[in-house]
Amino acid sequence: MVEDFYYGLSDVPLSSVGIQFLVQIVDRTSCSSKPTINSTALTNTTITVGNTFLFNITAQTNCSGRTISDILTLSPLHMEKSNMITDPTGKISTITESWTPTADQIGSTVFCTSATDRLKFN
Q1: Ranges of each domain in the chain
Q2: What is the DSSP letter of 19?
Q3: What's the rounded Cα separation, in Å, for the pair 26 and 69?
Q4: What is the structure's pLDDT at 90?
Q5: What is the pLDDT of residues 98-109, one digit of tens each?
Q6: Measured between alpha carbons, how far is residue 37 from residues 65, 91, 93, 94, 100 in Å?
Q7: Does 74 or 121 have the greater pLDDT score?
Q8: SS3 label, residue 109
Q9: Could you tell me which of 39, 20, 26, 27 has the C-alpha nearest to residue 95?
Q10: How many angstroms separate the CA atoms of 52 and 54, rounded?
Q11: Closest by Cα among 37, 104, 99 to 71
Q12: Parallel/antiparallel/unpaired status of strands 80-81 and 66-74
């Protein structure tokens, strides 16, 4: 029940509205393994100013009954992330990153990624 009051000056609500919601209870899977992430980019890659650099990030779930829900990235300014493509099983997902660095971006740059998975509901 949600109730609103006149600025807390009264114990009598101005209105009351009942709330209903649905909760689904599921068995917790015994798998605690995090998704595996792979990249076509090397750990230390040299990129030339003005040239477009493309690479793929692939995430794979290591638990049965789970699917990859997102591949998250923390990337340099103007790096573009494609939509995620997922294989029919839902276990492997891929994004493509595209970046054309500018002269003001010369130097070392950090790129971070992580993947999240979720329990697949029938």
Answers
A1: 28-119
A2: -
A3: 18
A4: 83
A5: 999 999 999 988
A6: 18, 12, 10, 10, 23
A7: 74
A8: coil
A9: 39
A10: 7
A11: 37
A12: unpaired
C-alpha–C-alpha distance, residues 72 and 41, integer Å: 16
Looking at this protein, which amino acid is placed at residue 98? S
Rounded to whole angstroms, the Cα distance separating 86 from 60 reads 10
CA distance 20 to 80: 41
For residues 67 and 118, the answer to whether their CB atoms sit within 8 Å is yes
Q: Residue written as tokens 């015994």?
A: 30
Q: Is 14 left (phi over 0), alpha (psi -120 to 50) or beta?
A: alpha
Q: What is the pLDDT of residue 26?
A: 60
Cβ atoms of 74 and 36 closer than 8 Å:
no
DSSP state of 121: P
Mention every residue, 6+ apart, whose C-beta is less than 8 A from residue 87.
93
CATH number of 28-119: 2.60.40
| pLDDT, tens only, 23-58 | 766 666 567 788 999 999 887 888 999 999 999 999
DSSP assignments along 26-92, one per residue? -PPPS--PPPEEEESS-SS----TTS-EEEEEEEE--STTEEEEEEEEE--TT-EEPPPEE-TTSSE
